[in-house]
Amino acid sequence: MGILEKLRWLAPCAMAFLATLQAPAWAQEPAPDPARAVLERAAEAMGGKERLEALETVVLTGFGQRVYHKGGGFLTGEAMAPPKWQSVADAQRTFDLQNERALNQERRAFHFPFAGLFGLDFARNSTLQSGTQLLDHPLPALLEALDEETRLGSVSIEDGIILVEFTPEGSSTPAWLGIDPRTHLPAFSRWIEGDPNLGDLTHTAWFTGYAPFDGVQLPLGLMNRLDWREQVTLMFQVDSYRLDVPAEQLPTFPEAPRTSAVGSSPQARVSQVADGVWDVRVGTSGGAVIEFADRLVMFEAYGGEAQTLARIDAANALVPGKQVEAVIVSHHHFDHTGGLRAAVSRGLEVISHRGNEGIIREMLARPAVHFPDALARNPHDLVFTPVDEELVLEDAMRRLELYRVVEHAHMPNAIFAYLPQERITMEGDLGDEAWNFHWWGGALAANIAHYGIEPETNIAVHSSGPLSIAQTLANIQRQAEAAMQYCRETEAGGRYVFGCPVQYDSTGPLPLTVR
User: Fold this and answer.
1) Complete DSSP assignment for 245-295
2) pLDDT surpasses 70 at 31
3) Around Cβ 386, how many Cβ atoms within 10 Å?
4) Residue 9: enclosing H or E segment and its boundaries?
5) Which residues contact 140 (CB under 8 A, 6 or more apart)?
6) pLDDT at residue 256 in the model
7) Distance CA 330, CA 337 (A)
8) pLDDT per residue over 346-358, tens digit each?
9) Reported pTM
10) What is the 3-state secondary structure (H, E, C) of 359-390?
11) Residues contacting residue 84 through CB under 8 Å, at least 6 positions apart
12) DSSP letter at 356?
């Protein structure tokens, strides 16, 4: 049956079922709450409400793929850029249903060259989950919707699926369950979370391939999708379920992390690099602030709202009468643009490669109603200044040259900055002293040669602070050699890693090996 035929068939089924929930005019008993009736019918279809509510633990295992950076870490910001995925193996998710929590344990590795060993080595990761993090599976989602403290909302039809709105206790944001009118099993769940790049971000988790396990119907197929670009974020296949597992077979749940103190905010560290040039960073991430005759310009809005606002506030205290009025964005990746909405909330002009304008406009246009952020509280229109091959910012006090990054397969639509008088470069993801591996080691030297510049100092976004160009290139060479050694070791063990063999060291492309 085609999708259109299926929708035409499901819609009457949904309407017919909803009609059964309406009490006739002559009935003495009040009509049942439609939302609760739909949910209770779903519970019966899954195995019975009493059976579901009596479950203490459910453990699933399986494998799949996760998308990188919610789709914001691809090669470029274009909608049709090839996606980057992360393998998920040896996955086990333990639901402690009575305490409304889960422990997700999995091994994962990226399907692309990554700078850290932790992204490639399939090390086991554990995440304690609660709240909306449990809504991506129909069992805890349905139990949450049926909880006596949950506020039930409207019942509607979406593409032939019965949609029930509910708001969990303690939440002001609704969630939804979609129920198949034919099987009465949950077809999907939906919830909203705040996101630093995308504002209110709606997640929909789809459930397919139901099968019985100890009398309970559970899905073998799980797939999550965002309302941004319809991006799929998780594709997961369950290969086993176990119900009410003996305690000796269960993992130990860690204690829930303590929330940070109210009002606490990150502290920016400021160090002067040259006259009118400072490095302003939070922890090991940040960048330069450059003084011009009548304003300050900041490099990168990295991390998130709090981190970026801390850097802006620290910069605004540097020179009496001068404020940060523009931010240079090296490239679109979501870690490097996590504070962009916050920067625009302060009215900052955004300067980046022209190829990033589309995705930047998408990020800034999204609402943040349920989870208001700085841009929602203080809205500003985007002022975007594009860089094609190069752009010069110059006044009587300063000359800053912006160049398109060349020969860097990690970020084609990227720019870096150069102060010719001070001989300082500023960049994101050309060099990082903390990386284990560098797969694009020739990029920094290639850009220096291509543009004929002569830097002495480099201020990287990922760094403890400014380093000499010589030290930066030495770090890159060490990281490239470490990547080569990693490729040799993995190949010897019969495993072929994305990015191997390494194509560059710090001097440029390596000779090809005859195959």
Assistant:
1) --GGGSPPPPPPPPPPPTT-----EEEEEETTEEEEEETTEEEEEEE-SS-
2) no
3) 14
4) helix 3-20
5) 95, 97, 100, 102, 134
6) 85
7) 9
8) 999 999 999 999 9
9) 0.92
10) HHHHHHHCCCCCCCCHHHHCCCCCCEEEECCE
11) 67, 68, 69, 73, 74, 75, 110, 111, 112
12) G
Longest dimension (CA), the chain: 89
Distance CA 139, CA 244 (A): 14
The answer to whether the beta carbons of residues 405 and 415 sit under 8 Å apart is yes
What crossing angle do the helices spanning 34-46 and 3-20 adopt, rounded to 10°? Answer: 120
Tokens 């195995």, located at residue = 47
Locate 208 and state its tokens. 């397919």
Residues 97 and 348: their CA atoms lie apart, in Å, by 47
The tokens of 243 are what? 């119900």
Residue 26 CB coordination number (10 Å) = 5
For 315, phi and psi rounded to 5 degrees? -65, -40
Exposed / middle / buried, residue 218 (Cβ in 10 Å: 0-12, 13-18, 19+)? buried
- DSSP states of 104-127 as a string? EEEEEEESS--SSGGGTS--EEEE
Confidence of residue 262 (pLDDT cuts 50, 70, 90): low
Half-sphere exposure of 454 (CA within 13 A, CB side): 2
Q: Which of 33-42, 111-120, 213-222 has the lowest mean pLDDT?
A: 111-120
| Structure tokens that stand for 165 in this block | 């709105």
**Burial environment of residue 482 by CB neighbours within 10 A (0 to 12, 13 to 18, 19 or more):** middle
Please list, in sequence order, all residues whose beta carbon lies within 8 angstroms of the beta carbon of residue 254, skipping any fewer than 6 positions away. Answer: 103, 126, 128
In angstroms, rounded to a whole number, what is the distance separating the alpha carbons of residues 348 and 371?
22
Nearest to 426 by CA among 396, 397, 389, 453: 453
Q: In what order do the strands lie in the sheet with 161-167?
A: 124-130, 101-110, 85-96, 57-67, 232-243, 216-226, 199-213, 186-195, 175-179, 161-167, 151-158
Residue with tokens 């590795």: 109
Spatial CA neighbour of 340 closest among 193, 199, 229? 199
